[in-house]
Design brief:
253 residues, alpha/beta, Rossmann fold, six-stranded mixed sheet, 10 helices, binds adenosine-5'-diphosphate, binds magnesium ion
């Protein structure tokens, strides 16, 4: 049961944002990806989650190739992503944002609403209960009725994680969950990730905050200029001379 990324390449114009990237992780694992700006990390997430096609290479989950599937089909298989810039609906409340993230309701389809009103009501009740569970788990219940646009940076990141959880995922791709988040909330978010992982949800996490990430994950991959430079235990990887050169500019952290 694993996510397998093999020899994935992707160019924009003549620029190779991903150059034969290969990575593998158990579907219920916890893998971090670090690298300087422009290394190709977000592009890798877009390819893995099906938002943009690769030029070459293949992505598979549990031995099943995902290459021809779009984001919704991948989400149904349990693979969901968050975005570096949170994509909440500013005017909707936290609760409404979570409910809107629930996949595949009959209410999304007008015919379903017309022919099966009872079923739609039952689904809505289930979705509301799921949203409440997610808010309780993420400590967002006190701001349930607040428009999402009024949340702090850290709360928006929590909401983004919550929206991913509404899809009942097996593996979540988190794009910079700690960016613009204060130190207290970084600890909160890290603790929630650890709890979810203990319940069997896998995480592939892009992060710029090297300290926070290396405390959280047992395995780290380092990307630079579209390539994976090294992967392994954080201490090992961070001791690698090429990694220090690329990521830390040769400076001892
Ligand atoms: N849609 C796009 N069109 C053109 N260039 C892109 C696009 N997306 C990413 N890039 C380029 O690809 C490189 C990698 O970007 P990105 O994956 O966002 O890096 P990272 O997330 O590691 O900072 C950057 O040079 C970026 O400008
Ligand atoms: Mg990025």
């Amino acid at each position: 049961m694993s996510l397998l990324i093999r020899d994935v390449s992707r160019s924009f114009g003549g620029f190779r944002a991903l150059d034969r990237v290969s990575l593998e992780m158990p579907a219920d694992g916890l893998l971090g990806v670090i690298g300087p700006n422009g290394a190709g990390k977000s592009t890798l997430f877009s390819v893995v989650s099906g938002f943009i096609p690769a030029d070459a290479g293949t992505v598979s989950l549990d031995g099943r190739t995902l290459d021809r599937l779009g984001p919704a089909a991948r989400a149904r298989l349990g693979l969901v992503r968050t975005f570096q810039v949170p994509r909440e609906f500013h005017h909707l409340t936290v609760r409404e944002n979570l409910m809107a993230a629930a996949p595949g309701q009959s209410g999304e389809n007008l015919l379903g609403l017309f022919f099966r009103p009872g079923r739609v009501a039952a689904e809505e009740a289930l979705t509301a209960a799921a949203a409440q569970d997610v808010m309780d788990f993420l400590r967002l219940a006190p701001v349930a009725g607040l428009p999402a646009g009024r949340l702090s940076g850290g709360q928006k990141k929590l909401l983004e994680l919550g929206r991913a959880l509404m899809a009942k995922p097996r593996l979540i791709l988190l794009d910079e969950p700690f960016a613009g988040v204060n130190a207290v909330l970084v600890q909160e978010i890290a603790a929630r990730i650890t709890e979810l992982n203990a319940r069997g949800i896998g995480f592939l996490i892009i992060e710029h905050d090297l300290q926070a990430l290396s405390r959280l994950v047992p395995r780290l991959a380092v990307m630079d200029r579209g390539r994976v430079l090294a992967a392994g235990a954080p201490a090992e990887v961070l001791a690698d001379a090429r990694v220090r050169e690329a990521y830390l500019g040769g400076v001892v952290a």
